[in-house]
Structure formats: structure tokens, C-alpha cells
Design a protein that fits this description.
Elements lengths: L1 E5 L7 H14 L3 E4 L14 H13 L5 E4 L7 H7 L11 E4 L4 H9 L3 E4 L11 H14 L15 E5 H7 L12 E7 L3 H12 L9 E8 L12 H11 L4 E4 L11 E2 L6
Parallel strand pairs: 1-2, 1-3, 3-4, 4-5, 6-7, 7-8, 8-9
Antiparallel strand pairs: 5-10
Length: 272
């Protein structure tokens, strides 16, 4: 299998690229092609919008690639998501696209366009503690569709959408908003105050589109900053509270998050 790596948001660290290439070479079941664009830098981004979009569209149109693996999160993929999903080249439909965090904008846009997407580890996650396991998990799914990589609460044939909560809130009401109908909605976040999680949940479950989902499940909300005074509630009470207030079923915990243990969530889980 041949997998292309592009950076729709922030610059990929060279040591992360080297680690991913070494793991792929040792496995022997896939080839990684890390696009030069991944190492560009313009302010916050891995190159200007036009360069990030061009690299992504290039690999989407290249029939020799079986999958596109997003390099890193951060911020920026929303600036190119609509254009990336427009006028799709035929080869784009034969690939799987994987990432999470800020890549959620692309997952949403591509899912809406009928492409195969999965929430799962980024290449940069190799630099986390235990990151080698995260990279192997991503490749085990992309190459072999290994069921052990999957978030354990997924059901065959059931749509399950997984997003960073802040990203999810930002894409609601836009042209790339996904169809939540009867889908499990898994959420996670990182480095957000409890009050921000509370405010964002108010907005998310206030959406009529989100209220069509089957249930909401809570992944890990990590590195929550201290608040002065203490907010008094954490994600484990905030999320069920807002779900209950809007008639949305709360489905309990989900094994996803901004960490090396982050599991894979294909938006549509099939046997293929």
C-alpha cells in the first residue's frame, strides 16, 4: 500500500517524519510518501493556503496512492476544506483519509462529499509518549483494516462521527457540516477550560442537525487549565447535562483523545 502524507494545517517536525518513515520501512507492508509541503512554514501554517491546498489536491488526484494521512493538527485546514472537497478528481474516491483534531474540518468536508474518512492518529503523534503504538495503530487500520485498532463501542454498519469538540462547534451551520442523522457522535478536546467546554456544548447540542444523532459519547478532555474560581463541574458532568437538556442521548465514554491511545473511528464502518 502507498500512503501520501500532507500537512493541511501546521508544519510537520522532521523527527516525526523520520520516525514514521522508519516504522513503515520496518513493517514492510506500506510505503509512505511525505510531501515536501509538510516542511514548509509561513507563520502558523505549513505554507500558505494555496500551497497546502495544492499539495492535498495533488495527492487526491494521484491514482498511485491508496490513502492520505494527515501530518499534524493545530489550525488551518478549515481555510482550505471547502476547496479541497470541490470538483473531486476520480482518484480521490478510491482513497481513505485519516486524521483528527484540526483535520476534522477535512474529515467533515470529505465525508459530506462521499469520501472514505476516519478519525485516527496523526503522523506527528509519533512524538508523543507511546507514539510508536499510535503510528502502528494508524497503519494497521489503513493497511489491514485491523479491528483491534477501532474504538471499541463502534457498531458494524453504524455511522460514527468523531470530532474535536471545538472544531465540531466551528463547522456547524457551514457548507461542510456533516449529516448526523442516527449516527453516534464522539467528541474529545484538549487544553480548554471547563467553562469553554460548557459553552461549546450549549452551542453543539443547540444545533437541530446535531440533535438528529443517535447519541453523544465523551472521549478524553485532557490538559484542562485551572480556573479561578474553580468552575465546579468537569466534562463528565457537563456533557451529560447539556445532552439531557436538549433531549440527546448520552452514550457514555469513548476511547478517543489528544494522546497516543487515540483509537480509530471510521465514519462508516463496513467489512470492506
Amino acid at each position: 500500500m502507498k500512503i501520501a502524507v500532507v500537512a493541511p494545517s501546521c508544519t510537520l517536525k522532521p523527527e516525526a517524519a523520520e520516525m514514521a518513515l522508519a516504522i513503515a520501512a520496518a513493517r514492510g507492508d506500506c510505503t509512505l510518501a511525505i510531501h515536501d509541503q509538510c516542511f514548509l512554514s509561513e507563520g502558523h501554517f505549513a505554507g500558505p493556503d494555496a500551497a497546502r491546498l495544492a499539495a492535498l489536491r495533488e495527492v487526491m488526484a494521484d491514482g498511485s496512492y491508496d490513502a492520505v494521512w494527515f501530518a499534524r493538527g493545530g489550525y488551518g485546514s478549515n481555510r482550505i476544506a471547502e476547496a479541497a472537497a470541490a470538483d473531486l478528481p476520480p482518484a480521490a474516491r478510491s482513497k481513505t483519509y485519516m486524521g483528527y483534531s484540526d483535520s476534522g474540518f477535512l474529515l467533515a468536508a470529505f465525508d459530506r462529499a462521499g469520501l472514505k474518512v476516519a478519525h485516527g492518529p496523526l503522523v506527528q503523534d509519533g512524538l508523543r509518549q507511546g507514539g510508536d503504538a499510535a503510528l502502528h495503530r494508524a497503519l494497521d487500520w489503513l493497511v489491514r483494516r485491523d479491528p483491534s485498532t477501532l474504538e471499541p463501542g463502534l457498531e458494524q454498519g453504524r455511522r460514527a462521527l468523531a470530532f474535536n469538540l471545538t472544531v465540531l462547534s466551528s463547522l456547524l451551520g457551514t457548507s461542510i457540516e456533516p449529516d448526523f442523522s442516527n449516527a453516534d457522535l464522539l467528541i474529545e478536546d484538549v487544553a480548554e477550560h471547563d467553562y469553554r467546554i460548557d459553552r461549546t456544548m450549549f452551542h453543539v447540542v443547540g444545533s437541530a442537525a446535531v440533535r438528529k444523532c443517535r447519541r453523544v459519547r465523551l472521549g478524553r478532555m485532557s490538559d484542562i487549565p485551572d480556573n479561578d474560581p474553580p468552575f465546579g463541574h468537569g466534562p463528565e458532568t457537563i456533557v451529560p447535562y447539556w445532552c439531557g437538556s436538549r433531549g440527546v442521548d448520552f452514550g457514555g465514554a469513548a476511547d478517543i483523545g489528544h494522546d497516543a491511545a487515540n483509537k480509530v473511528v471510521p465514519f462508516t464502518l463496513s467489512s470492506n
